[in-house]
Write a structure and sequence with these properties.
Layout: E1 2-4, E2 8-10, H1 12-34, H2 36-52, E3 64-67, H3 70-79, E4 84-90, H4 95-111, E5 116-122, H5 127-132, E6 146-151, E7 154-159, H6 175-182, H7 184-193, H8 196-224
Parallel strand pairs: 3-5, 4-5
Antiparallel strand pairs: 1-2, 4-6, 6-7
Helix pairs in contact: 1-2
Amino acid sequence: MIRTRKAGSVTMINYLTSSFVYTKVANAILWFYQDIRMGLIFAVLFVLCGLLLPEPTYTGPDKVTYFRTAAGLEDEVNRDKRVTWLVAFYTAWNPNCVNMAPVFAQLSADYDLENLKFGKIDVGRYPDAAKAYKVNDSSLSKQLPTIILFKDGKESLRVPAFDSQGKLKKFFFTEDNIKAAFDLNNLYKECKANPLKHRKKMAQKAGESVEIENGKVDSGHEKSE
């Protein structure tokens, strides 16, 4: 784990992934320069390795809800506004999204509550969601992945975010950075201290007290008459 002033916590995986990609591209250029046939063979082997030996996927525990449409996400977020949602907008082909997947899954397993939920939506398959929530889903996009916090049915915070000059601030999606950006520890404590059942009981008691007060007022009117 490396800590930088701008990026916060960054794992070596981020640097190694980039260095390996650049090394393979440099090798391809050198092979083409030496012998175009060898360059073609290297390029074919590179593509085959990518297709037959993909990056390992996360298979551990997670409590993530997967959405299929922007309307489905909006309906769920507004269905019960007492529930806080942390939703990741991603694509299957983006390396940053692939690296973020196990981190987000682990966070969902650690912080999931009945009123603190985690969700994901693939904007590559469902571009309407990218358009609705203003996430650039192009191949050159620096907004992938994007994580948005919804509180009371509305967007409260997102990363990466834009600065005052409209420039996108770089964000590394490590576990520590996500926890710090959304203040997850305090958010978890807040949601745990106010469970949905407790709120329902408070609402019921408030309703009963109103009925009692109304009863007293009615009986007072009867006596006065």
